[in-house]
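Field log, afternoon session.

UNIT: design team B
ACTIVITY: writing a sequence onto a fixed backbone
BACKBONE:
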């Protein structure tokens, strides 16, 4: 009798445990996760965007969402997605990278029309950071071409940061009435002064700030305050050139992945959050230029008051720029191979 009782009790406990496990499944099913594959310099931004969105989504729907991040050089990141990294969304710093996804069928050809502002919730620009006291007297892009000035800039072939730095130099000549030949001459002289080409914006920052290499760092406006916060104010100085490039930061749903994972609606809500007042405020506090005029005005003192040009207005658009400058054998490759070290 005791043996029968114990056996029955074990069976009952097993059934209870099974029922408890089954009852827990709906709660687990209500949880969701997204992977945002992004570029290097956006790390700190998404440390704030993600919990804010998760809290907002939880309040609206009761659903818990886990937001995972991957950061690196933008072109490398897109290559990883094409290679199998299952990103629900991508948040990049140049349209040409997302266009690669469209060409491979990961997102529709009209991806830039699916959200406002060409699917770019913010922009930035390229500035210069020099060491305390600005010992080389750097004031504008042309100063980076002087002999003896070491320039730290990431590799334009694999990172949007480097690509925008290259285009800031080239476009500064064109936008000021100069010729293509003069632009090429400036860029060649500047890249002759580059001691090392890092694979991402954060790597270039480390090279300049921690390894002590270079007289000037070419980087996004939003990176400057991060460097000051990390290494202490007063060690470096920001230099605003007379003209620079506006750097749109586009976003997209990776439809091929989102459809497979059933996350399309959540992915859209996540990207939509970037345009909400809360999202725009977070963007501005991280020194990226928000699209909301009221938010921009509130934080205007954060942003350099300089003349800006765009890839479309001054350089013929991303399709032309990518083919002319950054395709294999293009202008950038020609410049680099012509430099004698």
């Amino acid at each position: 009798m005791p043996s029968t009782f114990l056996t029955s009790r074990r069976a009952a406990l097993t059934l209870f445990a099974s029922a408890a496990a089954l009852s827990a499944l709906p709660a687990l099913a209500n949880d969701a996760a997204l992977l945002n594959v992004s570029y290097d310099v956006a790390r700190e931004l998404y440390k704030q965007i993600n919990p804010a969105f998760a809290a907002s989504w939880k309040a609206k729907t009761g659903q818990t969402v886990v937001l995972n991040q991957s950061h690196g050089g933008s072109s490398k990141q897109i290559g990883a997605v094409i290679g199998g990294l299952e990103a629900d969304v991508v948040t990049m710093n140049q349209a040409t990278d997302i266009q690669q996804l469209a060409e491979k069928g990961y997102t529709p050809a009209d991806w830039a029309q699916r959200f406002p502002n060409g699917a770019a919730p913010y922009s930035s620009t390229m500035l210069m950071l020099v060491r305390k006291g600005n010992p080389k007297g750097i004031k504008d892009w042309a100063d980076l071409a002087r002999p003896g000035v070491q320039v730290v800039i990431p590799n334009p072939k694999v990172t949007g940061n480097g690509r925008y730095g290259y285009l800031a130099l080239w476009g500064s000549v064109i936008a000021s009435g100069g010729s293509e030949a003069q632009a090429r001459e400036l860029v060649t002289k500047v890249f002759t002064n580059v001691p090392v080409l890092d694979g991402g914006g954060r790597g270039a920052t480390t090279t300049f700030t921690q390894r002590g290499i270079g007289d000037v760092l070419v980087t996004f406006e939003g990176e400057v305050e991060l460097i000051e916060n990390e290494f202490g104010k007063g060690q470096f100085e920001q230099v605003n050139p007379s003209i620079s490039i506006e750097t749109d930061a586009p976003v997209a749903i990776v439809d091929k992945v989102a459809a497979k994972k059933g996350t399309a609606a959540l992915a859209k809500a996540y990207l939509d959050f970037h345009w909400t007042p809360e999202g725009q405020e977070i963007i501005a506090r991280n020194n990226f230029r928000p699209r909301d005029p009221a938010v921009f005005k509130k934080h205007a003192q954060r942003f350099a008051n300089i003349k800006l040009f765009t890839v479309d207005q001054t350089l013929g658009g991303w399709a032309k720029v990518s083919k002319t400058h950054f395709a294999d054998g293009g202008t950038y490759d020609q410049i680099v191979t012509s430099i004698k070290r």
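LOG NOTE: The CA atoms of residues 85 and 137 lie 45 Å apart.
NEXT ACTIVITY: expression trials, pending approval
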